Protein 1
Amino acid sequence: MDAIPNPKRGLEVIIDPNRCIANAKCTTVSPGVFVLDDETGIAVLADEQATVEQIFAAARACPTQAIIIEQFGRRMFPQILTPMFGEPE
Ligand code: SF4
């Protein structure tokens, strides 16, 4: 049986409206993939067929990390770091 084509490989893109400052970095880096909503000014994913590379390039370019990427329910970007415990050496 052939694999089902899935250009996004299970990725889900979430844009945090509280973080988006509408500076259009993502729309510059990945034109046509992300656009600014006419009414809210907040970025939205406009191309459901966008490639993984286009999505990550835009997310990395976002200065406020408003673009959150999950794959199969797990956070991929931005990375959540586990705090270190104990005293530094
Ligand atoms: S780069 Fe980030 S802050 Fe700027 S428009 Fe895109 S999502 Fe919003």
Protein 2
Amino acid sequence: MHRERRVMREMLHSAYRRIRPARAAAFGDRVHVRLRRMRTERRLRARRAMLFPQIKPLVAGKRGFEVGGPSTIFAEPGLIPVYPIVAALDNANFSGQTLWEGTITEGATFRFHPSKPVGRAFISEATHLGDVADSVYDFVLSSHTLEHVANPIRALREWWRILRPGGVLIIVLPRRDSAFDHRREVTSFEHLVDDERRGTQEDDLTHLDEILALHDLDRDPGASRLEEFEARSRRNVEVRALHHHVFDVALLARLLEHTGFEVRGVLEERPAHVMGLACKPQRS
Ligand SMILES: C[S@@+](CC[C@H](N)C(=O)[O-])C[C@H]1O[C@@H](n2cnc3c(N)ncnc32)[C@H](O)[C@@H]1O
């Protein structure tokens, strides 16, 4: 594969050198684009999350559950490409129709990798995975989902419930400074504890005014003008696009400890992510 790509690159280079003086414009541009794409692909292929070496043996050949999948970050050439190495994976999403996945049908429909068995799709809240039994999964995956959940401690407790003792949680959140949340404060731990104590539901709009004032629309390709963004946000219980809360490494680590996980690693994976790896203790 490497050799094929090298040969292809050399051919493109030499073609470009030959035509450069004469018809560089059109053909040369195409060659440039192609070379740039190949370089980007190579860079992306090579890049792995710092936690990936730790994660890999914990999920290889194991059975897992994702919340809000599938996720490009868990596929090749993502930063944490676990899909090709797991044995099986089920998934939950809050609705049969989402902004990200389109239509989801409950049952054996969760396709996450072409060579893996199709997993079971559950239509369930991240905070209430009703039909999923206790202590059955070796790992739980979640990418860019917990920030959409109004009661994150309740969700983490639910994910803990379905993990077997010794099972692991791999969680990815947006890094505030690179997201449309960059003008917002990181949410306080006490606020999230209070959400759990008060039983905050997923239709909660406590943060809406703050979001409308500080959301950076220029960094949100899914949103358009402020009026439309506000209208969509008011229907958040159907859409779920709001980031209720803003996380950083310290908050994620504290939440994981608070919900009974042993933290194996929490770090920033620049530019876009905060990542955590945590384990449900063997004796729990
Ligand atoms: C920003 S998308 C991320 C999609 C994918 N995980 C990725 O990283 O590309 C958020 C995902 O979480 C799901 N989601 C949001 N709130 C949820 C909730 N309360 N329960 C279950 N899934 C939820 C959305 O439907 C969507 O699939």
